[in-house]
Structure formats: structure tokens, C-alpha cells
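for the recovery benchmark. C-alpha cells below, seq after
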């Protein structure tokens, strides 16, 4: 049976209207409304999908910063391109307060091997020893007609094992490229000044210790190393190692009472195991530590204190121990030679 219903419609200006519709016409109105909504939804979805799949714009290329280069730096880089610095002569090691026997000689050549004349060089060398390290002085020289510079440092006032550095003299305001180029062209030669205590008479009071921590004997390795490096030393008249348990001042006073003013230096200390002997893959590793003090016999002043550790691995424990003692003694004595 067909029924009738009323639908109230609101006009655009607020007016109301009633229309009469049957059940079948109502179903058609609802069906048409759903179909219209689905179409609208589909169109909206398509539009939305198309928007998400839009191809993004390509990124802007990276901007590479360009370092400004002054005309002075550019000219410097062009001039050193292809040149070679060589130290063709140098002096032997000297002693504190003694002049070097000969100058350092530096030669500058171009890519064809021809000498480069009127080329400025910066020569740096150790000039002073401070508590926080070595200070360096720099002198500027210009190559002569044969592309050569000769340079003799001042008479050294302290012992040191270092180098003389020779580099192209850079412009006043070098940029990164200039600094790198200078470093690549720099050459070095040994600058060795041994202590003036080398050759002086000395007393050696250094003992070897075993793994149990007991002193065994005067260190033969230290006696040999000191003599090989120019120190005229002999073992202390104090036969017992017990004085090492007290202050250095006590060792000095007892030694001074026996030898008087016959000696210039006293070297005292001990060589102990730094760790238990290690065994790995049938090889033995021995680690030793030397604690050494150097005292002036004239005044009792401590001139140098050093503690150094060294390790050696060998096929047998005895071989590792022997080599470790010898190498450690050599390291410490060389340190004394260039630091006293």
C-alpha cells in the first residue's frame, strides 16, 4: 500500500515549504542522494590522490664555498710549485756551551733540478728550555746564486735532542692552502746537544730488583749504558741497597762522606718489575720500570728525576729480562744525556 509523507524544505531566505511524496518517491530521493554523495567522494579522493603523487621539485645544487686568496698567497703558491728543499750538509752533535763544528746547508731546486735563487727560507731551531718545554727561534735567509743557504745556530746553552726545520718563508697572512703547502715542503735535520756532564766522573747507585721485590745487585746494564754514552762512572761505595728506602738526601750524605769532592754526579735509583712476567704463545714478556735521580755531588741539588717503563717479548724469560734491562738502561741514559 502506498503511503504518503510530508517533507519540510527550508528555502534560501528562511521560508519553509512542505511537499507531499509517496514511499516510492522517497526511496528514489534517498537513492539519488547516496549516489550523488558517492560520486562527490570519489572525485574528492581522486583529486587528493593526484595531489600526493605530484612529482617534487628537484633540490637546489649544493653551494661550495670558495676561499678568497690574496694576490700574495696566490703568487707564493705558484712560486713553490715544483720546488724541492734538501738539507745537503749538517754538523755533528755537540755539547752544551760548545759551538757546532759546521753549518747546516740547504739547497733549493726547481722541477728541472736547477737551483732556485733569491728564495726566502725560514729556519727554526731550539733556542731555550723552559719548564713547559722547548722554545724555538726562527731566522729568515735567502738562497744565493747556487740556490743554497748556510746556517750555523748560536752556541747552545742547554742539552737537547731535537731538529732544525727549514721551510719556504710564507706570506704575512697565509691561508689554509699556503699553510698546507709549507708543511709539505718542510725538511728537518737532527739538532743534538749533549750535556756537559758527559765525561765527568760519577757514582752509580742503581740496583736491580727481582719479581719478589728484593734488590739483587748493582745494575750492570746501567753501568754499561752510561759508559757507552760518555759518562765516566763507577759503582757506589755503598754496598747495601737499603739506603734506597730513604730519601735521596741520605744517599747523597753517606756517599759524600766517603768520596768527598772526587766526583761530579751521583746517579741513584732502582729497576723493578712493572708487572708479572706474561706468557703467551710460548713467548715471555718482561716489563720493567726504572726510577732514577741524578744529583750534583758539589751541592746535593737534584739535577734530574725520571721514571720510565719498557717491555720486551722473547722466546725465554731470561732472554726477555736481559734485553729489557739493556734497552731500558739505554733509553734512560740517552734521556739523561740530552736533558741534564
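predicted aa per position
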Amino acid at each position: 500500500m502506498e503511503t504518503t509523507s510530508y517533507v519540510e524544505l527550508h528555502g534560501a531566505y528562511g521560508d519553509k515549504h512542505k511537499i507531499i511524496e509517496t514511499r516510492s518517491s522517497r526511496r528514489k530521493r534517498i537513492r539519488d542522494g547516496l549516489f550523488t554523495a558517492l560520486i562527490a567522494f570519489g572525485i574528492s579522493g581522486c583529486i587528493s590522490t593526484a595531489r600526493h603523487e605530484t612529482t617534487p621539485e628537484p633540490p637546489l645544487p649544493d653551494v661550495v664555498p670558495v676561499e678568497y686568496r690574496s694576490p700574495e698567497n696566490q703568487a707564493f703558491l705558484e712560486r713553490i710549485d715544483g720546488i724541492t728543499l734538501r738539507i745537503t750538509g749538517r754538523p755533528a752533535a755537540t755539547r752544551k756551551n760548545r759551538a757546532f763544528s759546521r753549518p747546516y746547508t740547504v739547497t733549493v731546486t726547481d722541477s728541472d733540478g736547477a737551483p732556485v735563487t733569491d728564495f726566502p727560507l725560514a729556519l727554526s731551531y731550539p733556542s731555550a728550555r723552559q719548564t713547559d718545554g722547548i722554545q724555538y727561534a726562527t731566522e729568515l735567509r735567502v738562497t744565493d746564486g747556487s740556490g743554497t743557504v748556510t746556517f750555523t745556530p748560536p752556541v747552545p746553552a742547554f742539552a737537547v735532542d731535537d731538529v732544525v726545520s727549514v721551510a719556504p718563508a710564507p706570506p704575512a697572512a697565509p691561508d689554509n692552502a699556503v699553510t698546507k703547502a709549507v708543511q709539505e715542503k718542510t725538511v728537518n735535520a737532527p739538532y743534538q746537544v749533549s750535556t756537559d756532564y758527559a765525561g765527568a766522573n760519577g757514582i752509580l747507585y742503581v740496583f736491580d730488583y727481582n719479581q719478589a721485590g728484593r734488590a739483587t745487585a748493582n745494575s750492570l746494564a746501567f753501568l754499561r749504558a752510561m759508559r757507552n754514552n760518555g759518562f765516566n762512572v763507577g759503582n757506589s761505595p755503598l754496598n747495601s741497597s737499603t739506603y734506597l728506602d730513604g730519601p735521596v738526601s741520605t744517599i747523597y750524605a753517606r756517599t759524600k762522606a766517603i768520596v768527598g769532592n772526587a766526583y761530579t754526579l751521583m746517579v741513584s735509583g732502582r729497576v723493578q718489575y712493572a708487572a708479572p712476567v706474561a706468557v703467551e704463545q710460548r713467548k715471555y714478556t718482561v716489563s720493567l720500570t726504572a726510577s732514577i735521580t741524578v744529583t750534583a755531588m758539589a751541592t746535593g741539588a737534584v739535577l734530574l728525576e725520571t721514571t720510565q717503563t719498557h717491555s720486551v717479548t722473547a722466546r725465554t724469560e731470561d732472554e726477555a729480562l736481559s734485553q729489557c734491562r739493556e734497552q731500558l738502561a739505554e733509553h734512560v741514559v740517552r734521556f739523561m744525556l740530552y736533558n741534564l
